[in-house]
Automatic annotation (TrEMBL):
Protein name: Glutamate synthase (NADPH/NADH) small chain
Keywords: 4Fe-4S, Iron, Iron-sulfur, Metal-binding, Oxidoreductase
Source organism per UniProt: Sphingosinicella soli
Superkingdom per UniProt: Bacteria
Annotated ranges, domain Dihydroprymidine dehydrogenase: 27-136
Pfam family, one: Pyr_redox_2
Broad class of enzyme this protein falls into: oxidoreductase
GO molecular function term, any single one: 4 iron, 4 sulfur cluster binding
EC number: 1.4.1.13, 1.4.1.14
């Protein structure tokens, strides 16, 4: 490669794909960014400095070979770039769309730190893989060996579960995936709105896995349809990859009023409508923001998904209350900017104190002004109430987006011997990723707590290796016993 093909960050400025204007995008659920054209993808990839210690790769949970596929893209070798990209990731087009690159690869880009603006890694990653699907470079899933004498059961069809399923199927195992929903993908399908991740992107990945021989069992609940022990008897090993779905609640007067709803219920209803499903709670207005004054409580990415969904549903107004300031919110700053462009009003340093209940329906939020005090145990500055700083916000729909905790899996699964941590997450051996039950492994958010999709993919990749080691040892022991 000629040196002139790279290191162009001094003369070529940072350029993200063009965003559709807010007035054009605020009434549909299509992705807001237009696609790169080939020349622009090559140009932006050529800004990479090819540094000796690639901080972008170091800070990627998957340790993607980012500088190498940027170089290949700059040279126009897109198929090779895709092959390198998918060597470490089962869903590069998903990560390219929804990873918080500003906090991971791009936020740690060397040229970003030098003031030239990071390489637009996520946008290039998305372009590479979208091109691969278009050109037919995405290969079918084919087992590399035959271990069909052993089967694996995976509970949860989210990112961790389907990633582990793919890697285990590649090794030749019979793989069955069980999920409580009627479609796979977990929060990729039902939690993340289409304007960030169009559902066809997820569905085509799932279709590839089904065509590769992975069997999906939908509308299946462990504890209702089978206990964990019954599933364990059916398979040679199990993986629990359920994620965390229990919504954190607000303790305040009036929180039980009609129209005060959990974020995930709201997002699932919206996404189901996007699929064309009948959703009675949406159709009767319970989970529909149309014409309403909406208040979302929270400052994470789920809160951003809710406010931007409410805009698209035709809300009369949308406000977001968060108890810290903008600089200390956990959600993506890019998402905040997108929401502001679409008309969302952020009320920083504020927290709900009570909800006005008018004949069983919420009518407003009484809130308190906050200030940031000394850092707490986590190192973040703790919010403190400002006395006399009370105010009221009109609302007839309040969405609680305060994060998620694990469900009580031992009780749900009928598995009292499944041990948990004090946070309710599954306790696993750090090396093997096995739970307290022999042959039952766990990965993703149900182990680490609510986290990023890219970490779930990483965990799915890692647990597939340890499960293979366990299954191979078990097969070897069986063979030795049979020979004796």
């Amino acid at each position: 490669m000629a040196e002139k093909d790279m290191l162009k960050f001094v003369g070529v400025g940072q350029a993200f794909p063009e965003k559709r204007p807010a007035a054009e995008r605020d009434d549909d659920f299509l992705e807001i960014n237009r696609a790169y054209i080939l020349a622009k993808a090559e140009e932006q990839a050529s800004r990479c400095s090819q540094c000796g210690v690639p901080f972008c790769q170091v800070h990627c949970p998957l340790h993607n070979n980012i500088p190498d596929w940027l170089r290949l893209t700059a040279e126009g070798r897109l198929q090779e770039a895709y092959e390198l990209s998918e060597a470490t990731s089962t869903m590069p087009e998903v990560c390219g769309r929804i990873c918080p690159q500003d906090r991971l690869c791009e936020g740690n880009c060397v040229i970003e730190q030098s003031g030239h603006g990071a390489v637009t890694i996520g946008s290039v990653e998305k372009f590479i893989t979208d091109t691969a699907w278009k050109e037919g470079w995405v290969r079918p899933l084919r087992p590399l060996s035959d271990r069909s004498g052993q089967s694996v059961g995976i509970i949860g069809a989210g990112p961790a579960g389907v990633t582990a399923a793919e890697y285990l199927r590649r090794r030749g195992y019979e793989v069955h995936v069980y999920d409580r929903h009627d479609r796979g993908g977990g929060l990729l399908t039902y939690g993340i709105p289409g304007f960030k991740l169009e559902k066809e992107i997820v569905m085509r990945r799932l279709a590839r896995l089904e065509e590769g021989g992975i069997v999906f069992h939908y509308d299946f609940e462990v504890g209702r349809d089978m206990t964990l022990a019954q599933l364990r008897a059916k398979h040679d090993a199990l993986l629990v990859a359920t994620g965390v779905y229990k919504a954190r609640d607000i303790k305040a007067p009036g929180v039980g009023a009609g129209g005060v709803i959990p974020a995930l219920d709201y997002l699932i209803a919206s996404n189901r409508k996007s699929f064309g499903d009948s959703v009675p709670a949406f159709e009767n207005g319970s989970l529909n923001a149309e014409g309403k004054h909406v208040v979302v409580v929270g400052g994470g990415d789920t809160a951003m998904d809710c406010v931007r969904t409410a805009v698209r549903q035709g809300a009369a107004s949308v406000k977001c209350l968060y108890r810290r300031d903008r600089a200390n919110m956990p959600g993506s700053q890019r998402e905040v900017a997108n929401a502001e462009e679409e008309g969302v009003v952020f009320v920083w340093l504020s927290a709900p104190q009570a909800f006005d209940d008018n004949a069983g329906k919420v009518a407003g939020v009484r809130a308190q002004q906050m200030r940031l005090g000394a850092p707490d145990a986590s190192g973040r500055r703790a919010p403190e109430v400002i006395e006399g700083g009370d105010f009221r916000v009109e609302a007839d729909l309040v969405i609680k987006a305060l994060g998620f905790d694990p469900e009580d899996l031992p009780q749900m699964f009928g598995a009292p011997d499944l041990t948990v941590t004090r946070w309710g997450t599954l306790r696993t051996d750090h090396k093997t990723m096995m739970t307290s039950v022999d042959g039952v492994f766990a990965a993703g958010d149900i182990v680490r707590g609510a986290s990023l999709v890219v970490w779930a993919i990483r965990d799915g990749r890692d647990v597939a290796k340890t499960m293979h080691t366990y299954l191979a040892a078990r097969a070897g022991a069986s063979a030795t016993k049979a020979a004796a």
